[in-house]
Each structure stands twice: as C-alpha cells, then as structure tokens.
Amino acid sequence: MRWENLSINDRSTEEPALPIPMAGAVARTFDTPEFRGMTFYEVRAKSIINRVPGASRVPFEWTVNPYRGCSHACRYCFARNTHKYLDLDAGRDFDTRVVVKVNAGELLRKELASPRWRGEQIAMGTNVDCYQRAEGRYRLMPEIIAALRDFANPFSILTKGTLILRDLDLLKQAAEVTGVGVSMSIGFVDEALWRSVEPGTPSPRRRLDAIRQLSDAGFAVGVLMAPILPGITDTPESIDETVRAIASAGAASLVPLGLHLRPGAREWYLAWLARERPDLLPRYRELYGDGSYLGAGYQRELTARVRLAARRYGLHAGGMNTARQVLTSPQEARVLGSPRNGGRQQPEQLTLL
Ligand code: SF4
Q1: How many CB atoms lie within 10 A of CB 193?
Q2: Which parts of this chain are annotated as the region Disordered (predicted)?
C-alpha cells in the first residue's frame, strides 16, 4: 500500500479513525442527507496509474481509481474485499467509509508527463465507481478527464453514476483528440429490486436516461448488463424487459454477465439473499458450490437468452448498424465503447463485475 507509513493527524472526535493510519489524512463527515453516516478519508496518494496484475483476466492493463469504497452499496459488489486491506470490513464499512485520493488529478498529470509513460489505455470504474456520490463534492473526475484530454491519452469509464453527465463537455473534448469509451452498468430495470440490491445507485431509469444523453452526444455507449442474478433477474421476462429498455435508450452494445460471488461479495450478498429470498439459497448452493463463478452451462444459457432478446430489439452482431451489437465475452468486449466521432477501438473493463 502506497500510504502504509501514514497516520491520521486531523480529524474530529466523532469520526472513526482508519484502522490503518495514513499520514496527512483527514477524516471528514458532511452534515447533509446525502452523506449522513458516511466518513471520507482524504489522502494524498503517492501514485495514481496502477498496473493490473498480470494474472488478472481482464482486457485492460492500466487503471486509475480515485476512490476506495463505494457508497453505491451494491450487495453483490466484487470490490468489497479490497476494503480488508485497510483493515475495514467488506460490508458496511465498504459502503460508508470511503478513501478519497484528493490529489488524483494533479498526480495523474504528472504521471502522464513522465517519459516512462507510453500513452496506453487507462480504464476507470474498474474497481469502485468513480461517479459515486462523493464525486459530486470532491470533483476529482473533471481534473482527471482534463489531464487525459490534454495528453490525448485514451481511456474508458464504466459507471452506474449519472453524475457522469456533469462531465459531458469534457468527455466530448477528450473524444476529439483520443479514444474515449463510455459504458453504463445496468443488470435489470425492476425498481423494487434496485432499491433492495443497489440502494445507493441512481435508479435504472436514470441510468437509461444517461445512456440516451451520452448517445445523443455522440458516444457509442456500451452497457454491462451485470450482474444477472440467478433465480431473480435471469428469467426470460426480466431479460427481455431489460434488453428492451437498454436498446430503446440508444445503447450501442451490451455485455451480459452472470453474478460472480467472490469472497467479500459472497458473504454480503448471501446475507441479503437469506433475508430477502431464503427460498433461493439451495439453488445458489447448487450453482456456486464453494466457488465464485457460475458454471459454463448456465452462462451459455444466459447468453442465449440475452441474444434472443437482443435480436428482438435490434441489438445484434452484423445487423444493419454494425455498432449495435451484443457482445458476449470479454474479448469481444474489447471493441466496446469507441466514440462515434472517430475514436479508436478500446479495451474495456467488462470482466470485473
Ligand atoms: S457501483 Fe460498482 S463499485 Fe460501487 S458498489 Fe456497485 S458494484 Fe461496487
């Protein structure tokens, strides 16, 4: 950890300290309904462009993550376990105790200017959401996008945050000079389920509206249709309704992915399932056993269902408009997210959820 020798030296008495101290860090709370119950740990990171470990099966090599923890609080979030490196828990702490790298923009500019940096693609939203609620206050993304624009460095963003629309002008400016991939994550459109399973996110309707606006602005918006929840949103009806909504919002492509249950996410999601749908626990035991992933047979069936629905609503490979296609593997997902205005093809961050 880059701030391992740091310690908190400026915080009020009510605010919980981080178990792992960070020098120069400031623990802060805000007395607004939006941030009630949350603590932000403002830190000055020592580096900001991260290399993805070689063993990771993801189609990108470099990432920028200005936050750790995510107030979007999705029960199934794969990133939960990363909070344990801070000696915080992967459940409520992940949702409410968020590390903010306040110098992310200035540091990125410095690293992009380094002769060692070779201008490779940078993926954002690959660990936690860079357009989570904190971004409304800290405004780290405008500085980050401006730096990437100024260095004409290609990048992609995957988010559930409609706050991305705030930065639309900057994104357009960046897309004039480099490849900019924009993807929205929408696994289902059922509003009651959304409130229960993704309680801190903008509603699926608002995300669909954001796709429309991004699409109208000239971006070929990709959708990560994930996670599809076994026994809940994997029915033909749910898939049909979701694909129809995504297609009519103007998305250019989508990637369907079933739920992964890695450690951290697994415990938190299964606790939710036990409360909300105990009848499904035997089915999950059957599907996942002690592992994190769904079997190949189930995945194939899921993909077939999505393909069927996608064809019905005009999202299909090799159709009239080649930009409107359904992508079904991380490899295919590499072509997701290129802007219509001539950006080059992008690797994407679609294997993580
Ligand atoms: S928005 Fe993404 S990073 Fe944030 S909690 Fe949900 S799944 Fe995790």
Answers
A1: 17
A2: 324-353
